[in-house]
Input
Amino acid sequence: GDDFKKPFIEQNYNLEKVFYCGESILLPDYRGLGFYSYFFSEREHHARTLGRFDVITFCAVQRDKAHPLRPENYTPLDPVWKKYGYRKQTNLKAYFPWKDVSKSKETKKEMVFWAKEL
Output
């Protein structure tokens, strides 16, 4: 949607050259088994085989370390994403509303994009 496009347009990206990967979650039982590496390599391979993209990107919610819904043993995935060559693009932010568990209404959440040149 337009909310995803806006930060890229503001930073003068050619949207036709940006491959966006939708949000994904690897369930806890499957973590640490090598699926993540395969998942990233396959998404990148697909984007490259299309032959028209220069950048691959995804976004992640930004939450304060003291956020009440943050799991007790939460480990940020930033080091993992860096390992695969993605860099946090602090100049590329979007804001999306959704309703948190136990809340009665939606609130906007800050999302920051991570990107990698293909």
